[in-house]
Design brief:
The chain is α/β, with parallel strands linked by helices. Helix content is 36%, strand content 18%. A seven-stranded parallel sheet has the order 12-13-11-14-16-10-17, sandwiched between helices. The protein has a six-stranded parallel sheet with strand order 18-23-22-19-21-20, with helices on both faces. It has a five-stranded mixed β-barrel with strand order 2-3-4-6-5. Helix 17 links the parallel strand 20 and strand 21. It binds adenosine-5'-diphosphate and magnesium ion.
């Protein structure tokens, strides 16, 4: 037998007082393997227990404790099964209680006894309330007095997530038996001063408050401490990374002056919007220091992120350095290459394109120009990351639509800066990195997963855009939709038709999904006959796809039927109308991205969402799209409909999934932790002080892997 004195936090659940052998498996199923786990197994809510509440006042469907005089008992036996019923009464009412399989109770509970029962109330079919298999104990008649109950006040009873064979009440009693021992073993990792300045309880107090709170305020305080810890650890990890990055790397501080600015602007065929101006200012400020920029440029579809990137790249070129732009698809890389080349026509800047489908000899020649430094601006895909690509002096990297690339790939490109560093400075030279995205990142994520990125918001749209008029039609009215499309085509505008899948599904009773091929046929022969209709989807070989896309771009195709391959970045200003078939099958963010393919020119654009009988959520999505063109508004809506877990980025790092913290409720605490963490690391850049040892150990255990802290702290 284990004595209490021998217990450690690592003691197996099987060896804890109060745990019966047959319960061990159930604890294991709950992930509770040790005393430490038991303490971490926190109540997810508290039931209010009114001690000895008057029987007449008991609420149905509540776990309660009640005291009454036994006025009747009915032992009932049939075969092996037995039942023992009792009726309790006090001045205010009655409660019917039934125990199954406890025949011995007839010798223990007699009419006239006063007993306390604890269990869940239910409405009885016979009228009034009943309770089945409550726990019970002998009580004192005085406890039936309402004044006694009032004096004791409400007790909060912890409710634990439970499993078969291990109800919450059992966990509660095991916790109660081990709480004091466990608490005595807890060491606090927060130095007293840090804890007091935030008015947080000690870790020991916090666990006590959570498992056995005096009142709701205490339960809240206990939770606040643990949430603070959880958030602080992530923020400390991020702050350490940042400090490390700035300590060990540097970038070229690029030259900037009025003359350079003027020369760059002269290349841009329009006046920058106020939003672009302010982002350009932020970028110029970043790039002219030797602290490597790590900036996220977040702007809605069509906001004009490309010229902002171009400005940054030209700053590098003006200073005799190289810049690279990495796009997620060949199509986009080509498109960027074409538009950047157009803007730089007649200048000395050489713009190169490097994609996987270049013939080997051409790619070799491009790589040579990159390595020699002759290539000023390099635009490409993943091919930029291949080992055979090396730069002479890469100093600005722009990554378009970053969520298509992992954090890891960003780091790879960063490592390609070229020229060896100067001998007096140990810091490695890395390029400034800008990441462009149209996907609004919820604030919570931008403060955690992306916390080491500075964020620029590119607000507003270029002038002359009219918002895309969005409407929803059931499929029986598709004819009307295509009549609108026809009118546009007759006006020499172009159209997208988006379908959700490339397989046909003609199972009986189900509406068939329209594949790209059959849609091309149908529209070409019927609704849009006489116009040039072509299709693209992800299963076609890339060169074929690119051919169709470029014919659409140059206007030799009128209607492009596509799957979501056109979602990202495609820029054909003459395309002014989009039809989305089976729109209810797309996510909100995705529909917004898709819709961003139209409304890119001066002509008013329209988007028709065709959907039958959407689910309530589907309906909400469609309504939101018809009501708003603003990606930020829609992102909020999406967050509301789906919860943060599924949003882009949330899965990129374990740092984003919290055990206790909840958003938006804990936003304030998150901001506080971020401030505290930054100040902390500024003061102690490696958490190397003796009183920080435990904190550091716990930090490395929690986030050392996902934040790659091993070399840092
Ligand atoms: P996104 O932010 O979606 O990448 P783009 O950079 O592709 O947007 O820009 C969308 C369109 O708007 C392009 O055709 C671009 O030439 C045009 N554009 C960008 N900035 C301006 C501006 N300041 N004035 C007029 N047109 C602009
Ligand atoms: Mg873009």
């Amino acid at each position: 037998m284990t004595t209490t004195g021998d217990l450690a936090l690592t003691t197996s659940i099987a060896d804890l007082p109060g745990v019966q052998r047959r319960q061990v498996d159930a604890f294991v199923r709950l992930g509770v393997l040790s005393l430490a786990h038991l303490l971490h197994h926190l109540p997810y809510r508290y039931d209010k227990e009114h001690p000895g509440a008057s029987l007449g006042d008991l609420p149905p469907d509540h776990l309660v404790s009640a005291v009454g005089e036994v006025i009747e008992t009915h032992p009932i036996n049939y075969g092996k099964r037995s039942r023992f019923e009792a009726v309790l009464r006090d001045d205010s009412g009655e409660l019917r209680v039934t125990w199954f399989h406890m025949p011995f109770l007839r010798h223990k509970i007699h009419a006239g006894d006063v007993i306390r029962v604890e269990g869940t109330t239910k409405r009885s079919r016979k009228g009034g309330l009943e309770m089945t298999n409550p726990s019970w104990s002998v009580a004192d008649a005085g406890e039936m007095d309402p004044a006694y109950a009032a004096g004791k006040g409400v007790r909060l009873r912890p409710v634990y997530s439970a499993t078969e064979g291990l109800p919450s009440q059992t966990i509660e009693s095991v916790v109660a038996k081990n709480l004091d021992t466990g608490l005595a073993l807890i060491e606090d990792h927060l130095p007293d001063e840090a804890r007091r300045s935030r008015e947080l309880p000690t870790l020991r107090e916090a666990y006590r408050m959570l498992h056995a709170p005096q009142d709701e305020h205490e339960a809240g305080e206990g939770r606040r401490r643990l949430v603070y810890d959880e958030l602080l650890l992530v923020q400390l990890g991020v702050a350490l990374r940042r400090a490390h990055r700035l300590r060990t790397t540097r970038a070229h501080a690029l030259k900037w002056d009025e003359r350079i600015d003027g020369r760059i602007r002269a290349r841009i065929p329009f006046t920058l919007t106020p939003g672009q101006e302010s982002v350009v200012r932020e970028i110029a400020a970043d790039l002219t220091t030797d602290a490597p920029a790590n900036r996220l440029i977040q702007g809605d579809v069509g906001a004009g992120k490309t010229v902002v990137a171009l400005y940054a790249m030209l700053l590098a070129v003006a200073d005799g350095k190289q810049a690279a732009l990495m796009a997620p698809t060949e199509l986009l890389a080509e498109q960027h290459h074409a538009s950047v080349s157009r803007m730089l026509e007649g200048s000395k800047v050489s713009v190169e394109l490097l994609t996987g489908s270049l013939p080997a000899a051409d790619a070799g020649a491009v790589r040579e120009r990159i390595a020699s430094g002759d290539a000023g601006i390099v635009i490409g895909t993943h091919a930029l990351l291949s080992e055979s690509t090396s730069f002479d002096n890469l100093s600005v990297v722009v990554i378009d639509e970053q969520h298509r690339f992992g954090v890891h790939q960003r780091a790879m490109l960063r490592a390609k800066s070229g020229r060896s560093q100067d001998e007096l400075d140990e810091r490695e030279i890395v390029p400034h990195t800008l990441v462009m995205t149209a996907t609004p990142i919820p604030r919570t994520l931008s403060l955690t997963v992306f916390a080491d990125l500075d964020v620029s918001l590119l607000k507003g749209l270029p002038p002359g855009r009219s918002p895309v008029e969005t409407s929803w039609y059931p499929s029986v009215r598709a004819d009307e939709v295509y009549a609108h499309v026809r009118a546009r085509l007759e006006n020499r505008e172009q159209a997208y038709v988006v379908v959700p899948a490339i397989e046909t599904n003609d199972e009986e009773g189900k509406k068939s999904l329209r594949s790209v091929a059959s849609m091309v046929r149908r529209l070409g022969e019927h609704e849009l006959d006489g116009f040039r209709v072509a299709g693209v989807h992800g299963r076609r070989p890339r060169p074929a796809r690119e051919r169709v896309m470029s014919r659409f771009r140059d206007g030799s195709i009128d209607v492009l039927v596509a799957t979501t391959v056109i979602e990202v970045g495609v820029d054909v200003p003459n395309a002014t109308v989009m039809v989305v078939e089976h729109a209810d099958r797309f996510g909100l963010a995705q529909l917004h991205q898709l819709r961003g393919r139209v409304g890119r020119g001066e002509k008013a654009s329209a988007c028709y969402l065709i959907a039958d009988d959407p689910t309530p959520d589907g309906m909400e999505r469609l309504k939101a799209l018809c009501a708003s063109n603003d990606g930020f508004v829609l992102a909020e809506k999406d967050l509301e409909l789906r919860g943060p877990g599924e949003l882009i980025g949330a899965r990129q790092s374990g740092a984003a999934s919290f055990r206790l913290a909840q958003f938006p409720e804990d936003q304030e605490l998150l901001l506080l932790c971020r401030r505290d963490a930054r100040a902390w690391v500024a003061d102690s850049p490696r958490l190397g002080k003796p009183h920080e040892a435990l904190l550091k150990k716990r930090l490395l255990k929690a986030h050392g892997g996902s934040l790659d802290l091993s070399e840092i702290a």
